């Protein structure tokens, strides 16, 4: 007779996180995206300040729709990371820890990052 409980198989696609959990995971993902892309962006932009030809190369690259979409993705990552970081600072000071407030602020971060990304992306496009 077996007395130990067998390990439970977790079906990851069937696990449903609450909205604060999704915002938290997206905060981490956006931070990684920003960390990885920062050296590339700095390298890409460094030449634009020194030579006119490098600036024209930059302008030609940024006019490509795929590059624009990638930059809008980075804009979303920045805005989400910023807004979620401010939310987490409030949570660290024990503000907004109630369940309903935490859910509301998480939804607000998620929606505000998307709205700001669309607004700024449309303005820059």
UniProtKB/TrEMBL annotation:
Protein's cellular compartments: Membrane
Keyword DNA-binding part of the UniProt annotation: no
Pfam families: Sdh_cyt
Keywords: Heme, Iron, Membrane, Metal-binding, Transmembrane, Transmembrane helix
Membrane topology: Multi-pass membrane protein
Biological process according to GO: tricarboxylic acid cycle
Gene Ontology CC terms: plasma membrane
Source taxon at top rank: Bacteria
InterPro entries per record: SQR/QFR_C/D, Succ_DH_cyt_bsu_CS, Succ_DH_cytb556, SuccDH_FuR_B_TM-su
Cofactor details (free text): The heme is bound between the two transmembrane subunits.
Essential cofactor(s): heme
Described function: Membrane-anchoring subunit of succinate dehydrogenase (SDH).
Complex and partners: Part of an enzyme complex containing four subunits: a flavoprotein, an iron-sulfur protein, plus two membrane-anchoring proteins, SdhC and SdhD. The complex can form homotrimers.
Protein family (similarity comment): Belongs to the cytochrome b560 family.
Stated name of the protein: Succinate dehydrogenase cytochrome b556 subunit
UniProt source species: Neisseria animaloris
Lineage: Bacteria, Pseudomonadati, Pseudomonadota, Betaproteobacteria, Neisseriales
């Amino acid at each position: 007779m077996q007395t130990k409980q067998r390990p439970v198989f977790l079906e990851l696609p069937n696990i449903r996180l609450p909205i604060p959990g999704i915002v938290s995971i997206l905060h981490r993902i956006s931070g990684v995206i920003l960390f990885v892309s920062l050296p590339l962006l700095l390298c890409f932009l460094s030449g634009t300040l020194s030579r006119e030809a490098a600036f024209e190369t930059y302008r030609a690259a940024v006019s490509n729709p795929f590059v624009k979409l990638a930059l809008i993705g980075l804009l979303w990552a920045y805005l989400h990371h910023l807004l979620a970081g401010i939310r987490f600072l409030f949570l660290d000071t024990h503000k907004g820890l109630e369940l309903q407030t935490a859910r509301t602020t998480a939804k607000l971060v998620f929606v505000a990052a998307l709205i700001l990304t669309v607004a700024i992306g449309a303005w820059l496009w």
